[in-house]
Amino acid sequence: MKKHLVIALALALTPVAAALAANPNVAEKKAGIEAKGYVWNDQSGGGEKIEALHKKGDVKAGKEAYEICGACHLPSGAGRPDGTFPQLAGQHATVIIKQIADIRGGLRDNPTMYPFAQTLTDAQELADVAAYIQTLCIPTDHGKGSGDAKLLAQGKELYVKECTTCHGANGEGDAKKFYPVLAGQHYKYLLRQVTDIRDGKRRNANPDMVKIVKKYSDKDLDAVVEYMSSISMPGSMCKAGAKKK
Amino acid sequence: MKLLPIMLFAAVSTAMLNGQAVAADGAKLFAEKTCTACHGKDAKTPLMPDYPKIAGQNEAYMIKQMNDIKSGARANGNSAAMKGVMVLVSDQDVKDIAAYVSKLKP
């Protein structure tokens, strides 16, 4: 009896699964960090990420392509302090390329971003838009934490001890290693991402980072993000008083 | 004391402009809440061929769809993409956006 039920259920569910996979506006999931043998930032299979990384991005063409991105991330790249849309301005082109390719490839789950990642026509356009984003100055009025001095001090201690090796003392990341710029990022976005990375929900995460944040309590995460959202990168930030686009 | 007439005047003009103010807010919300990104600035040039043109759509129908996508009651088709932005949109915003879009020329 039970066996029949399972078969009936499986039959009933199959068309649903097929319909989902067939929806061109929903990413088909690719095995990520939850799967055995996951390799972070795998570049062995070729594909558009590798192709885009090897192309020289055209900033002018990228500016045009960015217009569609600007509807959510704003023309300045500033995103939203409520953490729904990240700050993009000044991010390393390599990081932008990797993240868009991962979203497009079903490795980073982001149903809102997916249709837009899809509209980028090819690897060249991906390289162009990433090159343009990299040239933008980082806005200084992003979302910050609570301002609690004790929390900030705790966060600084954690950051200096465990985060600087990859993300740098000023949150500058590392373009060659695909480590993102953190300076100028919204507190709420950082908190959401680092929590997702700890909890295995960000499936394209770097296992080296998961290892570090795995032991963090919610309060530790809050503290380190409080500090991250307070740091700035000299020379890359928008000048005070400069007119926002 | 001198301020009173000015305040009164301001209050009255605001009340008079209220009808227009709602429409203006709707337009602002439509851009700010990122609706334009998918449905187009004019609400009838969607990003993808299977996204709806919504200019002139029934107000009550749009309110229902927005609320259902926000709550998760509607989870089919492209609603996954829209659910992500609905956290930005309050109940009042839903009404204002629907009022605005329903009055656009299809």
TrEMBL record, chain A:
The keyword Ribosomal protein does not apply. Residues 1-21 form the signal peptide. One of its GO terms (cellular component) is periplasmic space. Pfam families: Cytochrom_C. Keywords: Electron transport, Heme, Iron, Metal-binding, Periplasm, Signal, Transport. Binds 2 heme c groups covalently per subunit. Residues 57-137, 150-232 form the Cytochrome c domain. Heme c 1 binds at C69, C72, H73, M113. GO terms for molecular function: electron transfer activity; heme binding; iron ion binding. Its main location: periplasm. It is found in: Periplasm. The keyword tRNA processing does not apply. Heme c 2 binds at C163, C166, H167, M209. Coiled coil: none annotated. InterPro entries: Cyt_c-like_dom, Cyt_c-like_dom_sf, Cytochrome_c4-like, Cytochrome_c_Oxidase_Subunit. SUPFAM superfamilies: Cytochrome c (SSF46626). PANTHER family: CBB3-TYPE CYTOCHROME C OXIDASE SUBUNIT FIXP (PTHR33751), CYTOCHROME C4 (PTHR33751:SF9). This is Cytochrome c domain-containing protein.
From TrEMBL, chain B:
This is Cytochrome c domain-containing protein. PROSITE patterns: CYTC. The keyword Iron applies. The keyword DNA damage does not apply. It comes from the Bacteria. Residues 1-23 form the signal peptide. Keywords: Electron transport, Heme, Iron, Metal-binding, Signal, Transport. It comes from Sulfurimicrobium lacus. Gene3D superfamilies: Cytochrome c-like domain. Residues 21-105 form the Cytochrome c domain. GO terms for molecular function: electron transfer activity; heme binding; metal ion binding.
